Amino acid sequence: MSSKLVPSDPAKVMVIREVVPRVVTTLSVPFWRFGRIKVGGRGTIVRLESGALAVFSPVALTDDVKRKVSELGEVKYIAALDVEHHIFLGPWHEAYPNAQVLGPEPLPEKRAKQSDENVPFAFLFSKSKPVESISPEFDAEFDWEYVPSHMNKELVFHHKPTRSLITADLMFNLPATEQFSKTGVDATSGILTKIFGALQSTKGSAIWQQRTIWYGTSASDRAGFSQSVARINKWGFERIIPCHGDVIEGDGKGIFEKVMRWHLDAAKEQGKTT
What we know:
It is built from 10 helices and 13 strands. By secondary structure, it is of the alpha/beta class.
């Protein structure tokens, strides 16, 4: 990947933070969309009660990350949350070959066209064959929803013990303040970043993110997207950990409902007609 997209030395600029001590750890890094727009990137590590680790949207596997992993436990699950968040699957699988890899159905074919890395998928999420169980320890702590109507084929997980919703591109929370905090670069600088940031903000009415999701992200199947959003909204999360932008603490459910209001309303209307 070009250094304009991901940092050439991620160890210097990565923020490793225990969002929930000894349970949820985030790996926040700078990331430039199209090499210009500051959206940030984030991997998330969740330590299950069994001591097993689940890694979502893995980012660069630096020495600091390896040390953190060794402190926490054994990596048993690695999840690519959509067809865009997969570029570091190879190094993570190589380092932790016994971990089960999860991802959306279209991803193996995409990776085969882009890379020679052989990463076997233990679980592929598809609309026709829903994944109903990963393992007893995983099932006990997570809800999940596959959103094939999302343009990037999104996987969303809810860690029930910490009430944390873990997403990739389902919704953003720009600016990416934490993710650029060690770069010396203002996360809001640049006209393209300012424009994109306005489209992907959760502040105020979040009307522009509502429009972006309605007319862009979900345009191919709004009905299906609405049903997925309605199912996700039934979960009891309070925190949202997005890949792009800052972690949302405390009022995650309220912000989710605000951003997804059009789809939640559409799902209610669908329910009245079925």
